[in-house]
Amino acid sequence: MAPMGGPPPAGGRNNMPMRGPGPVNTQEEIDLARLAERCDEMMQIRYLEPADCEFAEKDSGFIQLKIDEKVYTHVDIYRVFPYTNPAEYLSVRDGEDAFREIGIIRQLSAFPEETISLIERHLKLRYFTPEIKEILFVRRRAGVVTMKVRTEYGECRFAFRNNSNAVIRLGENRVFIQDMDENRYQIPDVTKLTIREQKKLDALL
Amino acid sequence: MNLKFDLDNQTMETLQLQPNEEIWYCVPRDLSREDQFLTGAYVVVTNRRLCLLSDGHVVESYMLSACKKLDCETMINSAVLRLYFKDGSIRFFARCTMKHIVRFSYVARGATMLMQGRFYRVESMEYEATCPKCGAILQNIRTCPNCGGRGSSLKKAVVLCKPFAPQFLVLSLFTLLSSALALAGPKIRQVFIDSSLADKSGTLTDVVRFILLMLAIAVGNIVLNTVRNIFSTYLGARMAKELRSKMFQKVQKLALARIEDMKPGQLMNRITNDTTDIRRFMENTFASTLSTIVTMAGALIYMMIIDWKLTLVSLVFVPFMFMISYFLRSTFSQKFRREREKRDSLNSRLQDVISGISVVKSFGKEDYEVQGFRKLNRELTDVLIQNYAFFYSLFPTMNFILNLGTYLITYAMGISVLRGAMTVGVLMQMVSYAGNLYGPLETLTRLPRELSSLFNNVERIYDVLEEEEGNFQSEEAVDIDLQGDIEFDNVCFGYKSYEPVLNDINLHIRPGEMIGLVGASGTGKSTMINLIMHLYQVDSGVLKIDGADINQIRQADLRKRMGVVLQETFLFNGSILDNIRFSRPEASLEEVIHAAKMANAHDFIIRTPDGYNTNVGERGYNLSGGERQRIAIARAVLTRPKLLILDEATSNLDTESEYLIQNALERLEKQCTTIAIAHRLSTLKNADRLVVIDNHHIIEEGSHEELLKKKGVYYGLVTAQLEMAKVG
Fold first, then answer.
1. What are the tens digits of pLDDT across the range B114-125?
2. Would the CB atoms of A154 and B37 count as touching at under 8 Å?
3. CATH of B9-115 among 3.90.1570.10, 2.30.29.30, 3.30.450.20, 2.40.160.20
4. I need a labelling partner for A45 at 20 to 30 A (CA). Which of B191, B292, B469, B713 fits?
5. B720 and A35 in contact by Cβ < 8 A?
């Protein structure tokens, strides 16, 4: 569906007030009003309150959201700050309307238990960045690093070229490692690793 | 890339394939919905069913006839397959990590086609990232270096040196001679001491003869070493030159997608730094190390002949030294790494701030930046002081330990001399050889590091040299007399195949037509142009030029007949004349002027002090954006193209210039097909047809007037721009 397709039904998509110059008479003015409406929408931040929202999960794995009597059959939820604030500021978007933002959840913890677990499940499906809990083995040969690590999802082994941007530091202590297949692994705080592990990692940074 | 993994017999049995049923796709799924890594789990698509396998069992199975589509959704670091049924229901189907994301995307496309009754087999030309057998990295190479094909680094280094075999032979000869001379000195000294000095029987002639002999050896050594060094420098420079040329040639031939994969900085490093490192190795390390090894071996042999027991005893400190360097190896690298890290932080901060100095100043953040830089500077200084305090206390200690062997020899042999069991000359000879043996030992401990760095360089160079060119033109490709007829037939393409940029594009552009591509940023307009220029290969579907598959047309000939003005108007360092002529070096001066006039560039060129000979500086920075664009247009029209591609070609021009150029181009366009992209829609209002792209698809097509009447997306864009103009 195009973002700016065709003449809109009277009253606009979300029953938002029209912003046309004077009474809406001609087709041109209606479209201008829509543009103004889009601009309003773009500027607006709507924070979703637990009392107004009803989240439910469908078989497809999609989440349905009922808000102000309007039902969105497929919403996607994105973290605004995926690493620094993973359970705050979650952007809820309409999966069936060009990624349009419905609103932002400020604090997931403010929502009922059921919704929290539903949204957490959904986020887990979207964000898969295993955390390296333990570095078991690092081998460096001819510019290629092979690592065996233990993550929260089990042990895994991966390889990457050491001369590329495979190891990235985000902030002071957070480190991301991207392997050849573009899988990303994270170490939230390198200082929490043992000295031995830090030394193994040091050689790569 | 393999889209049909083999299943073992037992699993095949559980699939219970019906007669006439065959597996079309079989790819691993390595992640569960609950985030667990999976092994032995697959998605199987036959010509009748869609199945999920787990540990040799079918866990889910659906008839294709009941399904509408299989959709691959890219998540963050994973992908999900969702199955859409004809009854409107949707089901989570399978999940994978990035390792199989490309396969998932192809299988989703292939399975959907089967569901729609299109029995067309989707194939992936992409490379595997890792070797399916041994897991080794295979970025952009098809054959695994471990599992046959490319051979070891040492082998590659040997292959690299092969063309220079005669020179290496001469170099080795010089090295042998200079080592022989170095070893002859102590022997001559021993004879002189024992026969002339010890019993005081020598004459003045003996002394003069000895001095002359030693002088001759010293001069001989200087001459041999100088010749050897000059020769190895020459050899290193020759090797580096050959490699640089080979690599540059290779890069010119590589497909754009391959080059983009490599990152320009890395590629430049490989061509310049890696080859320079090889030259440096030849200059500084190769000849001197070879000579050191030969001298050491000779000294050891001589020492063993004189007194093998004492020699062996004196060697007792050598393993000790190697042990120290072995155990301190990680400390060394850690210290070097910390130094490098601090230096890099300082450099990148410096580069960041200096290139963004105007931003720093405009926000008044000079003090903040000074503080930040001071902190990094202090950190680097601290690390440097610590490191060098460590190195300067360690190395003399290690040297001392090594020399303990010499003290031991002097002590044991000194006693023998006092007892009359040995001559002073032999003692002196032994001590000299011990110096030859232990002196360079410490330098030799650095050899493994230098060799490993050399092998790394060789690996990286070979990585480029052995890169498959990835040019998609078929071997039977022919030249055509381009007419400008272009047809997209169900074309799908994505720079990463799992992220489609263009989906199911169908468009026929007739010769002489002017087409305007319209749409929001990032919708795939420039991508369509890249495909027409054959810089990339379509993922599926066919792109035809003059009725022939683009793969069947010789790329070089195709591009010769195209005139292209790209979004980023890149000009090379050189004169305006050189830059315009870049597209057709044989063009006459009159033709150049004509092209410049068409691009409304002639007048501003004349105003520059050196006219057409004005140097545009590196990347053309001396010119304004609009002037650069006009030169780029002149460069494009000079080819007398049959197909003119204008990607935001007039975006930096003022309205008057744009109008003039448009008028000029219109005259040219009558003879050639033109495809133009512009955000300023007035630029395209004269187009025969406008093609509106949105959400990876063509959503509207028609003339300016037709699309306005339709009141669709194009109408919306035009209205928005008119409103903007009103505000302006």
1. 998 887 777 776
2. yes
3. 2.30.29.30
4. B713
5. yes
